[in-house]
Design a protein that fits this description.
The protein has about 280 residues and is an all-alpha fold. It has one domain. Helices cover about 80% and strands about 0% of the residues. The chain has 8 helices and no strands. The radius of gyration is 21 Å and the shape is elongated.
């Protein structure tokens, strides 16, 4: 499997697990309610799931339509922008989840309780609908950015990778729900956060490469070094590493500054946010 396909599977895996987590929390909460409320709530929950899927599909169609409608340089600029937006959203999502994670379950159950006690169940419909629509729209942007950065479109390999990611998400969710000893939600979020941060760095470098090729930015120098003799970023293991991490065998000054700055910011946020998490949970 190529680096691009691994990235696609990773994104679908992580985003699907998050959507399944929201649905699972709400479903488990409903099982503890009186029979009448449980039946009524289950109907609204299913309606919310369907609504969220339809909204996510609509957003995906809009993004794909815009990408196909543009031509020439405008499409190049749009794709470069989407790659950078995807990188920024991944970074924001990781640290938002780190801040909100400890209190997410309690917040979902509290909102569901308020919705079910109201005269209508629209609130209970909106919780999963918004969660799925959000995860679906993020997934669309991430996948568009990944495909744009690799210069390829939606094909059988991409669909297969997405399917494998979704199947892996269902398998992991079931394992975690049944309390597999070797697995835990805490470990899942830690591992997937690290993988997503690496992916965001790769997308950032790809977006930067596109802006340099479009003469929007200057590379600021000729290549500072050349390690292609050891690890060529255009083929083999080096190409896989370049796709997954943003490695460059012959980097100019600007990419070096941006890549180093990205990981410096990530390390700062990583040391600051865990202390904040306890205060907001």
């Amino acid at each position: 499997m190529s680096g691009t396909m691994i990235q696609i599977a990773l994104v679908v895996w992580r985003e699907s697990v998050e959507a399944l987590l929201v649905i699972g929390v709400l479903h488990a909460w409903l099982q503890r309610q009186p029979a009448a409320d449980r039946t009524r709530g289950a109907l609204w929950l299913r309606a919310g799931i369907v609504t969220g899927l339809l909204a996510a599909l609509l957003i995906a169609c809009v993004i794909l339509f815009v990408g196909e409608w543009l031509d020439g340089d405008r499409q190049d600029y749009f794709q470069a922008t989407m790659v950078l937006v995807a990188a920024a959203l991944i970074l924001q999502m990781v640290y938002w989840m780190r801040r909100q994670g400890p209190g997410t379950r309690r917040a979902l159950e509290g909102r569901a309780s308020q919705a079910l006690s109201a005269a209508s169940g629209w609130g209970l419909l909106l919780i999963p609908a918004l969660a799925i629509a959000r995860e679906g729209s993020e997934t669309t942007i991430f996948l568009y950015g990944i495909l744009a950065s690799s210069g390829r479109g939606v094909d059988l390999a991409a669909v297969t990778a997405a399917g494998l990611g979704f199947a892996a998400a269902i398998g992991l969710y079931v394992a975690l729900q049944f309390g597999a000893r070797a697995l835990s939600w805490k470990a899942f979020f830690r591992v997937s956060e690290a993988m997503l941060l690496v992916l965001a760095g790769s997308l950032l470098m790809n977006g930067l490469d596109r802006l340099i090729s479009l003469d929007v930015l200057s590379p600021l120098s000729q290549p500072l070094w050349d390690t292609s003799w050891l690890l060529d970023d255009a083929r083999g293991v080096g190409g896989l590493l370049a796709t997954l991490t943003g490695y460059r065998a012959r980097p100019e000054l600007l990419p070096v500054i941006v890549f180093g700055g990205y990981w410096f910011v990530v390390s700062l946020l990583g040391s600051w946010l865990p202390r904040r998490a306890a205060a907001v949970s």
